[in-house]
Amino acid sequence: MKKLWLLYDDADFIINQGFARMMQERGKPLGLAVEAVLMSELVLGMQENGQPVCKRNGESARPDAILSRQRDAFVSEQFERMGIPVFNNSLVCRICNDKRITYQFLQGFPMPQTVFLSPTRQDPPEGTRFPVVVKPACSHGGDRVLVAHNEHEWREAAARILPQPALQQAVVTEAGRDLRVYVLGGQILAGVMRTARTGVVSNFKQGGHVALHQLTDAERELAQRVIDRFEQAGAPLHMAGVDLLYDHGHPVLGEVEDVVGSRMLYNTSEIDIVALYLQHIAKILHAR
User: CA–CA separation, 237 vs 243, rounded Å?
Assistant: First the structure.
């Protein structure tokens, strides 16, 4: 049996225990012993000989692979430096968990006009045309994604985020509607269309309506271009989500989810993404 750590921050694990159990159950027939491990159990550092080390509950610990559900690229790189494969790897983690870095990495792709906000900024950037979306650069799940229709609302929105990394974006013409393209093993698996009940936040956890969606040629082409860009950079998307927005009838880049959720797919289809993901991981590990 290959020993895999399903690595979580403590707070995220509390709301994802069902997913962890699915991972454990689906892994056993594949020769994968999947164990949920919390960051609070670990101490990472360097030995006197300059080699990286991980201790769990005071003892040196070394799994065969990490299925990372935490969002700190530094942590992922520590395990990679120990020679332990991490899915998704630290480069994916670094790119996807800061939207500013995502947009830099995917330069040349269609996306909403975006301004990276200084942590000390107190007023809207010169030339701001309202309404705009103000949101944290490093959050997920629709956290603190706010629409500002004027300077007063902009300052209120910014005050809820700054000095944390933040950005503002032009509001796309079809705000409140976006497509999650599920990626598995570098291939497009399925699409789920999300529609907000009100406002622009369409996330399923925040009440968005979801439905299985057959990708158009334009949606598929843009998503595949994103996948290919990551692959070429040595950051393969083993399980991820490419989120597309719609502006004047055309798909544009929203963001790329490293720690992608699966609830929407299970609620809208018969696709068992956890089983498929672990089959993909088993193939890689048993070939090593």
Answer: 14
Amino acid identity, position 161:
I
Crossing angle, helix 273-286 and helix 17-27, to 10 degrees? 50
- What confidence score (pLDDT) does residue 201 get? 67
What pLDDT score does 288 carry?
76
**Among the ranges given (100-114, 152-166, 197-211), the one the predictor scored with the smallest mean pLDDT:** 197-211
Segment 283-287 mean pLDDT: 92
Measure the CA–CA gap between 238 and 79, rounded to whole angstroms: 17
Q: Is 95 exposed, middle or buried (0-12, 13-18, 19+ CB in 10 A)?
A: buried
Half-sphere exposure of residue 162, counting CA atoms within 13 Å on the CB side?
18
Two structure tokens written together for 85: 């494969």
What type of residue sits at position 79? F
* Residue for token pair 């089959």: 279
CA gap 141, 229 in Å, rounded: 24
CA distance 151 to 114: 17
